[in-house]
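Project channel, design review

CF: Before we commit to the Anaerosphaera multitolerans constructs, I'd like one complete example in the thread so the newer folks can see what an input/output pair looks like. Taking DUF2232 domain-containing protein.
RD: sounds good, go ahead.
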Amino acid sequence: MTNKSNVNIFSLMIKSILLSILGIIFPVFYIFIPVIFIVESVFSGIVKIFSAFLGICLILGLILSPQIGIMFLILFGPFILIFHYMISNKYSVESTIMVTAVVFFLSLLVSFYWVGFTPESINSPESIENFIEFQKAALNSAGDSMGISEVELTQIYNMTVQMIPSAVIIMSLVLAYLTYTMASRSIAKRGGSIVQPFKFSFFKIPKGLPLALLLSMVLIYFFKGTLGDYSSVLIRNLVVVFGFILFVLGFSVVVFWVNKMKLGSILKFLIYVSVFLVPGFQLVLIVLGVLDYIFNFRKLLN
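CF: and here is what came back for DUF2232 domain-containing protein:
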């Protein structure tokens, strides 16, 4: 049994090193790194597996650079630990996803500061100038004869920067959900048992979430005199996050009915692709998400 465990850990380390190197070219591979450590921790124990993870961070620091090794430790270390704790203590799927998403969000913020991606550097004249020059070069290469003024490009840059918090929150939620889904399936295939996540077609919003978001907006508006210009930025970020959640809810309703109607694979594919590519479809799904939250079209139990 010990030999088998050692073989699994050795295989885990090889896989994680390969994924880390591939992730430099294709960042999507980073999604699988916490999954393989979480799965193995269920069978081999968190102490042994996290020790292996620390060894991987050290190896990456020696092979690539110390900054990359520390970055991996900051990003995935707390995430793996809290994930193992939540599933080992059989917390609900919703609680696990929310808590691990918060932990990854905080880890991302720390990693941003580690690499020098701070508010001061983002808002520096050099960063804005670099963005403007890059966009001008991209427009020229695309043959855009009309062009965009520097004032407009600066406004676009500022708006993009202001929406970074909502983008990081959404990224954290998606990663937490994907990690739980992939890890639970892998654990089940190996004969393990954890609380299984809900099917995406049964996704629903916790009843208190819209009220919490609404109260947050009211409080931000109430204290806008203290917050100044940040109040409008915070409200816009909350609107984007809530809009994304409603979009996901609406998409899950579509998936539910598509599965219920037993449509062919090609038609399913066309419907799912249309959700992301057809202009205006995203707004329709947000509205559908609102209606499903109110009327519970799928008759899901609380």
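RD: helpful, thanks. The radius of gyration is 22 Å.
CF: The mean pLDDT is 86.
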